Amino acid sequence: MFCERRRRNCYLETDMEFLVNISNLISHSDNLYDNLEALMEEVCRFFGAKYSMMTIVDHNQGKIMVSASHGLTDDEKRKGTYKVGEGVIGNVVETGEPVVIPDISKEKRFLNKTGVKKTGADDLTMAFLCVPVIIKNEPVGTLSIHKEHHNDIDFAYDIQFLGIIGTLIGKNVSIHRKHIEELEELRRENSRLRSEKPVKPDNIIGNSSLMHDLYQLMERVAPTNSTVMIRGESGVGKELIAEAIHKASPRATKPFVKVNCSALPETLIESELFGHEKGSFTGADSAHTGRFELANGGTIFLDEIGDVPPSIQVKLLRVIQQRQFERVGGSKTITVDVRIITATNRNLEEMMKNGAFREDFYYRINVFPIYVPALRERKTDITILTDHFIAKINKQNNMHVKRITGGALDLLMLYSWPGNIRELENVIERAMIMTTDEVIHSYNLPPSLQTAVSSATVHKGTLEMVLGKAEKQMIIDALIANNGNLTHAAQQLGVTERVMGLRIAKYDINVKSYKALVGASGDS
Description:
Layout: E1 2-3, E2 8-9, H1 12-27, H2 32-47, E3 51-58, E4 63-70, H3 74-79, E5 81-82, H4 87-95, E6 99-101, E7 125-135, E8 138-149, H5 156-195, H6 209-221, E9 228-231, H7 238-247, E10 256-260, H8 266-274, E11 275-276, E12 288-289, H9 291-294, E13 299-303, H10 310-322, E14 324-326, E15 333-335, E16 339-344, H11 348-353, H12 359-365, E17 368-371, H13 382-397, E18 403-404, H14 406-414, H15 420-434, E19 439-440, H16 463-481, H17 486-493, H18 497-506
Parallel strand pairs: 9-16, 9-17, 10-13, 13-16, 18-19
Antiparallel strand pairs: 1-2, 3-4, 3-8, 4-5, 6-7, 7-8, 11-12, 14-15
C-alpha cells in the first residue's frame, strides 16, 4: 500500500522501529540534551521534514526558547524566542493544543522569527506542524517540523505521531528545563553578587581590598544590636568606624554618645558613665545624667576600653548583660536600651594574662570584633586619602593647593606611618602651608619622611621589599575590581598579560579566589 504521508510504501514496522529507537535513546542516555540535536535530525529524516525544532519554556525569563533543532543555523536558533501566547509556538504553549499550518506563507500567526524560507523548493508549499510537550498537564515546551508538500497531504497522522514523540521526550525536556532555569538563576545571583559591592560609608576613605572587607563586616553587623569591638592602632579611624555603624543601624536617628575612657580620671569615670545624685560626693551640687542615659535608644561608643579600671569593668559588665545600673549615690535602678561599641589599640589578651583586664568582661565586649588595618597595610589608599585631605584643608584654611607631585607621593608610599591616617593628615596640612606654588613637592614634606629609618627600609626590609608589597596589593585590588579577569586587570594596571602572569606567580596570588566578589573576611 502506498502511503501519501511518507511518499513511499507504508510499513507499520518502520514506524514502530523508529519509536523503539527513540525510546532506547532516551532510556540509555545520561544526558538527553547532548543527544537532542541528533534526535531532531532523526525526526527530520523520518518525517521527510526540512527543519525540526524543540523549544523549552523558561519561567524565570518568561520566554520560550529554541533548545535543539536540525536545519537551523545558530543565529536562526537565537532568533527563535517567543512569549507565551505569541505566534504559533506561543499559542501552542498557552493552549496546550497542537497546531497545523498547511501553508506558512499565507498564515499571519506564523511570525517566522527564525527567518527560514516560507516556501519549499520547486514551488512546493511549506507546512508547519507544532505539538505541545506536556508534563503533568503543564506545557513545558513544543516540538515542531517544517515540511514541504504538494497541497495534497493529510497531516492528521503526522501530528498524532509527532505528539507521541513529544510525550516520549517530555520528561527529559522537563528535567532539562529545570536545569536551565536553575543555571540561569545562579547566573543572575552571581551577577548580582558581583555587582553588589559593599556600600562605602560616607565618612571613611579607602578602596583597597582590606577596606572592602571592613565595609562588608560593617554592613553585616550594622542592622543588629550586637556589641562590637573595634581593634586597631591609634589613628586608624576607629571612631569613624563606630559612627558609620551607628548611622547604618536602625538607631541612626537616636543619640550617638562618645566616651574617651582614657581621658577620664578613675574617680570620675563612674559618674560620667552612670551619672550621680545630688550630694553623692563632694562637689556634687546637682544631679548629673550619665552617658548611658544620654545614649538611651541609640549607641554609646566607649573608646580606649582597655584603659577602664577593673572596678569599672565589673559595673560595665552588668550594664552589658542586663542594660541596668544605678547612679552614683542613688538606689533607683535605671534601665536603658543602648547599643555598645567599644574600641582599643591595646593587647587585651595580654592584659588578661597579667590580670589587668577581666576575662568575663572581655568576652562580653568581644561579640563581634572588627580589625581596622593600619595605613601601612593599605598603602594603595594613600593617594585618595591625600586628595581628600588636600580638598578638606583647602576648604578649612581657604587655600588653593591643586595637587601633589609624583615624587612627594612616592615618599608618602614608602613611609611606615606609625601615626596612621591622623599623621598623614597632619603631614599634608604642614606641606600645604609650606608650598609656595600651590603644588606639594617632596621638599615640602617633613624631613623625617625622607630618611631610611622613617620609611622602615632599615628595620623592616629593603626598598625592593617595600615596593613589592605595594605592587602585590595593587595587583590584588585590580583583580578584585575586575572580578578575577586577568586581561582586564592587566589593562587597568597598564601592563601586558605576560607581565601580569609573572607578577602573580612571583607573589603566589590565587587568581581563582577573585573570580567572585570577595564576600568573606576573617576576624583579627
